[in-house]
Batch of 2 targets.
Target 1
Amino acid sequence: MDTFECIITKLDVREFSNQDVPSEIRSKVLEAARLTGSGLNTQHWRFILVNDKQNLKKLAEDSTSGSWVRDANFAVIVLTNPEYNFHLVDAGRVLQNMQLAAWNHEVGSGLFTGIREEKLRGDFGIPNELSPTIIVGFGYPARKMTGKSKKRLPLDRLVYYEKYGSSKSSTASDSGR
Ligand SMILES: Cc1cc2nc3c(=O)[nH]c(=O)nc-3n(C[C@H](O)[C@H](O)[C@H](O)COP(=O)(O)O)c2cc1C
């Protein structure tokens, strides 16, 4: 899939079919994570791949906003090191790359950040120096995603030109174009 097409068609998925995701696609998702650039190339992140149904159930129980992960085919716990002040930026980059790599193969994904941290740390053996920043669940969507659209603000509400508050038309007239 073309990259732009992948970005504009990807929606977060929270309902999954029980069709298995082939292991090659799972590997590509992890490879996309590995190849993501991190601040100063520190690669401070670590990833826990969760495949086992019982462990997916535990993940759901350890969450406050992602109980749907129970029905995912697999999930990835993204751990980052909060000593780096850019660790959340890194987490976002790695998340998006994994989601796009999956969606390129029509595998949907959803994330959650509402975590019962102590419980999760105990259940998955997470060391104190790493933060469980994001959990992403993957699987084929339960329903066709075509026809669904993103609810997003229009560009003219989001983008200013050259200076905060300046719309495109005012910039164009200011410069005589
Ligand atoms: C920082 C962040 C935190 C999020 N936390 C949750 C969460 O805890 N649970 C959840 O179901 N979705 C979570 N989401 C997913 C958002 O709700 C989703 O990206 C947004 O609704 C847009 O979805 P769409 O691309 O399908 O339109 C989170 C997204 C981001 C970027």
Target 2
Amino acid sequence: MANLSDSLTFRHGATVANRFVQPPMLTNSGEDGYATQDTINYYNAHSKSGGMVITEYMYVTENGGPALTWKRGREQLAAYDDKFVPQLKKVAQAIKHDGNKAIMQIAHTGREANFRAMNGKQVFAPTGLEDGLDFPFLPYKVHSLSNEQIKEIIAGFGAATKRAIDAGFDGVEIHGANHYLIQQFVSAYSNRRHDNWGGSIEKRMNFPLAVTKAVVDTVKQYAPDDFIVGYRISPEEIHGKNIGYTWHESTQLIDRLTKEFDLDYVHLSMPQFDAKPGDAMLLDTDKADSSFKDSTKTLAELFHPYLNGAKEIIVGGVNNREKAEAALSLADLVAVGRETIIDPLFAEKILNGEDDQVVDEITLDQVKKNHMTQGLIDNYSGPAAGIPLPGAANISSLHQGFGGWAEMKYPKNPEVK
Ligand SMILES: Cc1cc2nc3c(=O)[nH]c(=O)nc-3n(C[C@H](O)[C@H](O)[C@H](O)COP(=O)(O)O)c2cc1C
């Protein structure tokens, strides 16, 4: 078995210094799509979070975000135009200044682009109102994408990859997880199309395949040979009776993606690194029926036969050496999310044997050291908190407002509500 301190070389030649990865995490620090000084300070403070640091998700076309945004200045970042490149360069430099790899996560958030609706703009998904699909859990309307728009989004993933190369990133991660647009296409629940992009599982794979082709073609044309391309996937989408897909289908997709495009890595998005079939995935609200618990193996292991030379990253709940080593026994690389928000030196401390120095709860003192963005502070210090952060109550005095998603106001406009 590998050690956490072992280096790893991806199939296209890039080497990371150790097995820790910082996974993508929204910092809610953008303004009009641009990274701000708050964003850059945060990434500067996180340059040692792992041999590889993956940025938060950036939207690749104008209609692809912002998601999970409650006001201007607390936004998701954008990569849909060359005007964003100078700030993206600063993000890449901040991450890389200690010699680690910087990966940019590229995404389209589809129906989750809530801040568009707040600004009176249309929100899009594979299937929406025009085709009779309503999302009862969303407080705004969702429209079906046209074939023309789908092609623009695919091209947008290619163009955003070019911007990542120009900004000096070492790679890109295609965000195919967590209920955003790519997952919405793969999901039988969200995708009710009958054209090239929907229907059978083969057709529901056409969008992720086309996106990955656009990314890989761009990399072949413009990037250094060792540029890293990864793909993030939620292994299952099961909400009670609403079944998007199971691991039997997601492994088929990964098999095709890794065979056809020589991906460097596959990143399984899970709330627990040792999750098994039928365990709820991130943001899945309803429990799966016991019939979905059809293997005693972990999802990490069930994906092994389908990686075809790609490395595997797993994530979820790692905050000490024991869990990091248990995760590394199942995969090639271990991502540590919330614990690196709290303590960006977590990986370094573990690698140096300074386990007793690890901070595992957020405090006022730690907020200064880790350069937590005001957006993350607002998200965690008030009533809103998404995925819980240990110690969040300690920082309530820093709260500058955000009462939670139920409080959000959407304009009464025929396009929106
Ligand atoms: C504040 C926050 C923001 C996140 N933003 C993203 C994101 O931009 N893209 C993504 O793929 N996952 C995102 N995630 C999920 C994390 O990458 C990770 O999978 C999850 O937090 C579980 O890992 P952990 O238990 O180590 O935190 C986010 C999680 C948190 C806590």
